[in-house]
Amino acid sequence: MKIKKDNKGFTLIELMIVVVIIGILASMAIPRFMAVSTRNKQSEAKLILKQIYTNQRTYRQQGTGYFIPTGPASAATPNVLMSIWVEIPTSSMYVYTINATANTFTATATSNLDDDATEDIWQIDNLGELVCISDDSQS
Questions:
Q1: Overall pTM > 0.85
Q2: 42-65 b/e with 16+ CB inside 10 Å = b?
Q3: Which of 23, 46, 90, 93 is the most buried (most CB within 10 A)?
C-alpha cells in the first residue's frame, strides 16, 4: 500500500528565507528612496530662487534698486515677496530670505528636509549663480 504525500504550501524555512530576502531588499531600497525624495524636494528651492532672481532683475530695471523684503517668506507668510511677483506655495518646505542693497542681492532658501541636524541651504545672487551651501540629501 502506497501512502500519498500531499505537498501543498510552504515550509517554515522557505517562508523565513523569503522574509530575510525581503528585509535585505528593503534595507537597500529605503535609504535610496529617501535620498531621491529629498533631492526632489530641493527642486522647489531651485525653482523659486530662479524666479526670485528673474523678478529681482525686473524690479531693479523698473526702479532704483533691488527689492528689500520686510522679513522671510515661507508657507506661513507667503505674500512677503509679492512686490517682486513671487508667491510662496502653502505647501512650501523652505524659508526664503533676501539680503539686498541697491546694487546686489542674495536670496537664500533654508529647510530641514529629513529632520536631522543638517539643514538644506541654497543661494542665488544678483549674477544668477545658484549654489548649494549645505546639502541635506547627502547627510
A1: no
A2: bebbeebbebbbebbeebbeeeee
A3: 93
